[in-house]
Alanine racemase (Kaistella carnis), 384 residues
Amino acid sequence: MHNNSYLEIDRKAHKVNIDFLRKHFHKDVLFSSVVKGNAYGHSIERFVEIAMGEKVRHFSVFDSNEARRVKNVGGDNVTVMIMGWLSNESDMNWIIENEVEFFVFEKNRLTSALASAKKLRKKAIVHIEVETGMNRTGFNASDMKWVQDFLKKNAEFIEFKGLCTHFAGAESIANYYRIKKQIIRYDEIYNQFCDKDLKPKLRHAACSAAAMMYPETQMDMVRIGIMQYGFWPSPEVLVNFYNSKRKNDNPLKRVISWKSQVMSVKKVKRGEFVGYGTSFMADENMKIACVPVGYAHGYGRSLSNIGRVLINGERCVVIGSINMNMMVIDVTLLEHIKRGDEVVLIGDQGDKQLSVSSFSDYSNLLNYELLTRLSADIPRIIKS
Ligand SMILES: *Cc1c(COP(=O)(O)O)cnc(C)c1O
């Protein structure tokens, strides 16, 4: 852990988001909190703790390592569902022993789950992921009979908990027809399973964007990532929400803030270059400040000469290239700046704000990518 900078995780902001989402979704929908990618950069440990404080009990992760981290915080009080990777037999044994649930999208995983379940004399809890048009993971139509026969034959060892799919870009209207076709396809497959007396406990398909744009996809459970952290999946989803409400106030609040401090301040003469190479030349006498945050911490190089930070309540611009561990800021107009002054990389200072999306716009990175690149070494502190 270093102390160059820290991330503040705002418990109250999270409560605002979760209250909004619960109210907005159908009444009986189970809320699964997606905490893959180190809880979108917020830290699995910190985020699960605050989510549990709001009675969230279902968490979705990508792999078994993340599942272990959620279990370490939530123990038997939480249900964990792995949506992606599990590596080997010992993973599978741990998963079944701890009643962790998991997506199955290939035959091999189903047979290895059966083998472990028999050995441990404990049921494996599976969510069958079906291909509906994204063409990533999911059983194809040609596998379905095999899967159904397998589930029927091995019901003693395999609990058929969920039937699920994932949409190919519900955050963009450009994908409207593709998503609609996926919804129809999912319903057909669900009916096929029911016709064979295989009724899953949970039907689930929706990520944040699908749950907002296509409410029928909420089904029995929603898998919500980005919105619980206070971000919209895309501007289109936000605009769509505004249109449906006929008013423009954003009900979500950013949970994360990123703060550091001024490391040093000095003067630079007109005509001098700042930093590596020649990407920035002072065209007047300037004052610059160094901040001990760089691309090693997740502040992308694409923000060179572009990024903004808040110091002394003013918006200031990054000059020259982002270095591995530091960046240089133009602070010519800040009269009173000194070493140790707070620097806000994401968040509020005075009446000014820097949102993740504002710097995603500058750098063409999605909120998702920027958040998950925040280094795991940065301390996360819960603000109550
Ligand atoms: C990441 C993910 C989600 C959550 O997506 P958001 O857009 O962050 O809500 C849901 N389902 C699956 C399969 C995912 O991989």
Notes: The mean pLDDT is 95. The two ends are 22 Å apart (CA to CA).
